[in-house]
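User: Continuing from earlier, I have the next pair ready.

Assistant: Great, send them over.

User: Here they are, in order.

Assistant: Folding the first of the pair now:
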Amino acid sequence: MLSLKLKIKTEKKVLVDISFDLKNSLALVGESGSGKSLTLKAILNMLPNNLTKDMEVKSGFELNKKTVSFVPQNPFTALSPLTKISKHFTVDKEIQTKLLKMVGLDENLLDRFPCELSGGQLQRVVIALSLEKDPKLILFDEPTTALDPQTKDDILKLIKKMQKEKNFKTIFVTHDIYAAYEVCEDILVIKEGKIQEFGKMSNVISNPKNDYTKMLIKANFKSREFRA
């Protein structure tokens, strides 16, 4: 289990003040500006210079570049457009091929440029890149926002499949509770940097206690049939 206590602040204001336990997979959910991405940046040690953090972490592994990987929001800007896919990897061709097959891609894509791939293919490449160091924790920042509905569902299924096969822990940042429900066991709802609700995903979705959580669920599932 990974336990994290985090406070992010400016000189005059606290922007994020949360703590949580991560067993296997946790969705960090809230509207834009709620502090989700700031939390990921703090874990990645990528906060802007005008912000400071107080972070306490207890886990079975050290958080560093070898143990933590990151999948960003937009696959179209995540890769260098003038660099072939193979050159984005740091591992040899054999492992590159293995990683691509793992995410459902053919090895012939290694000789292509990012502009020659679809959004879904690019996101699969980014996920393959996140797996090359066999991380203990992968941070996903709105990984399906730039994708069409069918591709989005395919990527969510892929993430769930990879979780089982590679046994990494997941923090999945999103405003989309539907996406979170597909891949995460637990959910942490935040608003203005503070916890609104935390618990097992199925319990929170089927019986939310907080009005803000109720609003998010209603907005996400109004056009979908939901079964707890």
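And the other member of the pair:
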Amino acid sequence: MSRLASLPMLCVALAPLTAVALDVRIDPHADLLYRQALPLLEQADSQENEASSLRPVAQNDPELSRQGQALAHTLPTAVALLKKSVALGHPVAQYRLALYYMNYLPASQIPDAACPLLKASLDQGFAPPAPAIATWCPPYNASQAYRDALEALPGMATLYAPYYPQPAVRLECSRSRPQGLEMQWGRQRDYQAEVYRLLGDLDLQQRRSLLQKAVEINGCAAAQQRLLSNYREG
């Protein structure tokens, strides 16, 4: 089964941080464009991983050249579909296009290209942008607006359940450890744990209970280590 396949509609129930869910409506045509991009993104990811494994073996390998040409065709087509979906405000496409920029642009260009997309996606209640924003998007990642957006995420779990798993550059609460340049793929509860971990960094008064929630959701090792560290310091 493809790792891009949707999870069941049953979502992981969390104690809500806010009683109010955001009013988000995903445009059907935008959703169609996003889903058309998915198999191309998966194909491009597979081609890139295969090419990376061949590169140390032979720089002039014909198979490496073929895969490079296939990637050069597949990835731009996927990105074009994502951009069309983003133009219609699709929050998941916004995240995936930002992730593309995070992987293919120089580090100095990532904040300007990716952060507006990550923020727009997070503002619509989609959780995966949260850890990327924490890394790439100052000063927003220390703002009250960022914290408010994080607190609204649990109320949107049902809407976004079919869109998981989702890739990320780095998930501190995920047990998977990809090789090389591979993406980490997180389930919905992996990202929910990330949200509580991030909130624990922003709300020092509630830090212990927020980190404990991250541990309860998926056994978040990063949150557990911080709890132990705080206990020793206390």
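Worth noting for the second one:
Residues 118-234 form one domain. The longest strand covers residues 166-168.
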